[in-house]
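Minutes, project check-in
Item: structure for the 83-residue chain
Input as provided by the requester:
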Amino acid sequence: MRSVYNRRLFERRLQKNFQSCRIVKNLDVLIYLDYVLFIKRLAQVSSDSALQQQDMVDKRGLIPITDKHIKENMEQVLREFRG
């Protein structure tokens, strides 16, 4: 199975940036999964915002998510994921 990201390179960057911290095994996987959940939540909230505003409707009747919707909801989702 092909990897989604270069795990070895990501681990080296973590070790380089957090030299004074003890890094647990599979930390890179946990960070990646947290990132995926963040992106999924941001897309979900932005989609809801686009549905409420209904600014533009394309030819197929779908409402596109624009950068405006993402920027509006970025801070809210960041606050939810703040740890």
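Outcome recorded: DSSP finds three helices and no strands in the chain.
No further action items on this chain.
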